[in-house]
Specification:
Blueprint lengths: L3 H15 L9 E3 L8 E3 L2 H8 L3 H12 L5 E7 L3 E6 L1 H13 L13 E5 L14 H16 L3 E5 L7 H13 L22 H17 L1 H16 L2 H24 L14 H13 L4 E3 L2 E4 L13 E4 L7 H15 L4 E5 L5 H14 L6 E5 L4 E2 L16 H19 L7 H18 L10 E2 L10
Parallel strand pairs: 5-6, 5-10, 10-11
Antiparallel strand pairs: 1-2, 2-4, 3-4, 7-8, 8-9, 12-13
Helix pairs in contact: 2-3, 6-7, 6-8, 7-8, 8-9, 10-11, 11-12, 13-14
Length: 465
Amino acid sequence: MISLTAELTAIAGAAFAAEGLPPELGLVTVSDRPDLAQFQCNGALPAAKAAKQNPRAVAQKIVDRLKAEPIFAKVDIAGPGFINLDVADETLTRREDSMAKDARLGAPDIGKGKTALIDFGGANVAKPMHVGHLRSSVIGDSLQRLFRANGWHVVSDVHLGDWGLQMGQLISEIGHRGIAPIYFNEKFTGPYPQASPVTMDDLEEIYPAASAACKSDPARLEEARKATAELQAGRPGYRALWEHFFAVSKVGLEREWGSLGIHFDLWKGESSVEPLIAPMIEDLRARHIAVESEGALVIPVERNTDKKEMPPLILVKSDGAVLYGTTDLATILNRVKEQNPDLILYVVDQRQHLHFEQVFRAAEKAGLSGRALLEHAGFGTMNGPDGKPFKTRAGGVMKLYDLIAMVTEEAEKRLAEAGLAADYPAEEQADRLYLRSFAFLEIRGQDRALSPVRCGSHSIDSAQG
């Protein structure tokens, strides 16, 4: 089903064409004066100027033709030649009936034959989701629903943070605590226990402690870096621990996102592209896309049109370590190979905009992005009382699970107090409770229930399509 404005534009365009005028002048838009009309067409003014005629006279010819169309309840002229339009009630009723029978409620099928890969979620392995994860989750899920409603084939990827220094910090901290010595015994060949030696509650306490220890003690930091390198090199005990981290984390993540009605098609992480990084770097070297700079390997991404400095994307640091940009490039390579999308959309907070600009430019320069348009949909942060974004490693952040439970409890009280839905079936009661919970979350955002939370500035870049 085409949109109502598109249908009206086609009718008005035909009227202009019948008068020997360009049909594109028949563009119909929602009226900026709803007190005067529902829709408007301003094409008579430029038409009159080009023909050197009186604009009201031109408008009158168009109006006379449009009045013969049963779709309109009112057609008249305002001002120097604006055409005001009201649609007949019968027309709106027919469209409503058609939309009600359409599974997509009449959304235009503009994405048919196109694939969008949407990267959102922002969660990390071994860290519980907190209130700050709401924005990426809700905005990303809304976008994937909108794209699907417009006919796109959508693949959503949670792209977990499951690699890097934080994993080494956890492993080394567990080693210091002597929690699971079998995983640190280099002579042990397996198999390792199927049950995880740590729970999500354990990890919630261990991670901030490990981060603090590494921050205060250079020796502990070096130990964590070594553990990270050995994990990435495939040390069996560390890999087994890492798999436990992933498994226990996923249970909690699926629970939290599931309670929000959010689901992902892919549960990949940074580790999934680890095998692609070395050959990708070798290829970029060979093609002179990546060059040496002060001991590091970088991709220059500045352009002559830049109005401010654009730093190069660092692929390999002088100490041999790879960075998030390297992983993100490999991820683009992997997504193009597996999904061949028309669009890759990253729903990540606005602080990462420079990073994505560097990655996108590097991917395009190296020819890694295929046909995909790379877009970043940025947004503001949810901050603590100090005005700074929440950080799990600092500890003391309200968990998303606790927030959802609190809001659900309050919604149940409100429904009970108002006597609503008491005679409804259990499934419908749950649906109403779900909607009520989110209404309460939105309305009470600054009330006592969420007083530690303050939302930062917020801008969402428009997605293509």
